[in-house]
């Protein structure tokens, strides 16, 4: 089996979002060219990305929208319920717990963990907040396998290890700390900085292009 | 001039974060192999990424850490102050305004905008919140060129156009809406979904590999 390239995986949710819109507009089929134009991508790239999901477009008609939605959701495991806990419910953690789109794709936060006595025992966006010392036990008892981390940097590695000790196998890391965990543990870093790097560099590149259009 | 590939740009902040740590530990030089091992990347990839910033490593000694930090910061425009406004100060907008790391890289939020009368006139993380109807005028008067958007989906395009009308040229879009703006406007989408797609797919891939190790 081939591992799917990260850029492909990162584009699939965008396709999915567009496909929902097209379906809601009553469309039944869509070509890679239409998808590419709507999302300002290259049609060949779109076709290659979709190939990973094993959906085959038909000549002239393109892809069946319902089928493509179904297969992308399945491919990403977005058609199944996935319980998740979150460690750290400061302003970012709170924003994540309140983010409405996660429910749509099967992510259900079942608990939050923090060190702040004022937060422990309370509910944030209707999700119970527990003492972070209970993290490992809670995970072991609930059998949850996804954990998100938004704690301050210096505690990130420790918290991740506590999650793994309880049985978490997939960590969504919102901190800047590079985690070092066993090779069976899947870690995905969700950070603002990579996106900001693209934005600020593109601004510089646009300025250079404007000043030296022939380069 | 070559446009820098997005995956390269997305990795540069991670290098930078590691380089700060190495510098603080008293190191003066670093090889691409050390960087690659620390970040679980391929050393050739690291060398290629760094080549874009025009820093040349020396045989045996590798890169000068101070020089590399300086050049990556310059390359990303992170060595200069960049004012930014944000439209939408719900839980995500509030988290962004309070995110401590933006100041380090020269991003300064100078105002927030919202429709909520309770928020208008107040301060969030010490940043003044204004009526969203003042967005275009505020941008025109302040000369700010960066705008972040976290408003609900159906108003995203309208808000982006208001920003552009005031003079914003670079938009950091946190919503799922695909923006359609003039070709001179730089848009970078910062979304949770692409990252979550990588996480959930990698979990499936790990399961498949476990069940069919020979594939």
Describe this structure in words.
The structure is a homodimer of 215-residue chains. With 215 residues, the first copy, chain A, is an alpha/beta fold. The first copy, chain A, has two domains: 6-75, Orthogonal Bundle (Arc Repressor Mutant, subunit A), CATH 1.10.10; 82-193, 3-Layer(aba) Sandwich (Rossmann fold). The first copy, chain A, has helices at residues 6-24, 32-39, 43-51, 65-75, 91-97, 101-104, 135-142, 156-166, 193-211; strands at 29-30, 63-64, 82-87, 107-114, 123-124, 127-131, 146-149, 170-173, 186-189. In chain A, the strands form two sheets. Chain A has a seven-stranded mixed beta sheet with strand order 5-6-4-3-7-8-9. In chain A, helix 8 (156-166) links the parallel strand 7 (146-149) and strand 8. The model of chain A has no long low-confidence stretch (mean pLDDT 93). At the A-B interface, helix 1, helix 5, strand 9 and helix 9 of A face helix 1, helix 5, strand 9 and helix 9 of B.
């Amino acid at each position: 089996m081939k591992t799917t390239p990260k850029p492909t995986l990162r584009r699939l949710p965008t396709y999915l979002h567009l496909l929902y819109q097209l379906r809601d507009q009553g469309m039944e089929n869509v070509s890679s060219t239409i998808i590419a134009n709507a999302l300002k991508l290259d049609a060949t790239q779109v076709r290659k990305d979709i190939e990973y999901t094993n959906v085959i477009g038909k000549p002239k008609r393109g892809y069946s929208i319902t089928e493509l939605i179904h297969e992308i959701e399945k491919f990403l495991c977005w058609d199944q319920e996935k319980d998740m806990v979150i460690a750290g419910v400061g302003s970012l953690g709170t924003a994540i717990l309140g983010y409405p789109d996660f429910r749509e794709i099967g992510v259900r936060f079942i608990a939050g963990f923090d060190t702040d006595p004022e937060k422990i025992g309370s509910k944030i966006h209707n999700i119970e907040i527990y003492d972070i010392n209970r993290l490992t036990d809670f995970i072991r008892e609930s059998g949850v396998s996804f954990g998100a981390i938004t704690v301050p940097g210096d505690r990130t590695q420790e918290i991740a290890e506590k999650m793994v000790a309880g049985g978490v196998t997939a960590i969504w890391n919102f901190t800047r700390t590079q985690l070092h965990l066993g090779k069976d543990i899947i870690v995905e870093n969700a950070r603002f900085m990579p996106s900001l790097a693209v934005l600020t560099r593109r601004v510089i590149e646009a300025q250079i292009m404007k000043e030296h259009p022939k380069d």
